[in-house]
Each structure stands twice: as C-alpha cells, then as structure tokens.
Specification:
Blueprint lengths: L1 E8 L1 H5 L3 H20 L3 E6 L7 E6 L2 E6 L8 E9 L3 H10 L7 E6 L8
Antiparallel strand pairs: 1-5, 1-6, 2-5, 3-4
C-alpha cells in the first residue's frame, strides 16, 4: 500500500538556520531517500517552494476564485512530501519518524485511496 507522508513545519525554522545547519539537514533527507530507494519503498517525493508561491483555487456558486497563498493561515506549512510503499501503517509511521522535520514539525501520514472498478 502507498502512503503519502506530508511534511509540515514553520518555514521560519529553515530561514533561521545558517548554511551549515541547512546543509546537514539536506544531507539527512538525502540519506533517508537513498535508504528508502535501496529498500524499494521510495515511490517519489519533493520539496515545495515557499508558501508565498502558493495559489489557491476554489469554485463557489459556479465562480472560480483564485487567490495568492494557502487557504488557511497556519503556523506550519506544507513543505514537501514522501510517497512510500509500505506493508502497513506501522511501517509508514516508522518512516515518518525518520523524516528530519518530524523533530521540529509534523508529518501527516495518509494512505492513498484506491477506488476499485466496482465502486
């Protein structure tokens, strides 16, 4: 089963790090990705640009509303994700706990929904 591990943290944490700290964090992410690839669990993943680059789209009463930024003001922003293949939720949460941002933010673990042809 595939799980989406969504990485939320405060963008200011990154901006407040010096170059050395940022480099060490990136190295930890690269090591995790390489380990997951070696185990056949890595499906995909990416880091997102800052929330200031976000655009939100809503349809209300037939009108398309396009606004800059995220829908809600929050302390933590979606900063990236891993898409992993796991046997179960326990395995997915174990991987989520290895994501460096779990130490300063939140990793939301959600299984992908598969609709069968009969549904």
């Amino acid at each position: 089963m595939q799980y989406l591990l969504m990485i939320y943290d405060d963008e200011q944490n990154w901006l407040n790090m010096d170059e050395s700290q940022q480099g060490k964090l990136i190295e930890r992410y690269i090591a995790l990705e390489e380990d997951l690839k070696a185990k056949g669990q890595y499906v995909g993943g990416a880091r997102l640009t800052e929330v200031e680059n976000a655009t939100s789209v809503r349809i209300r009463e037939g009108d398309t509303l396009i606004t800059d930024g995220p829908f809600a003001e929050t302390k933590e922003q979606l900063g990236g994700y891993f898409l992993v293949e796991c046997d179960n939720l326990d395995q997915a949460t174990e991987i989520a706990a290895r994501i460096p941002s779990a130490e300063i933010g939140t990793i939301e673990v959600r299984p992908l929904w598969y609709q069968s042809a009969a549904e």
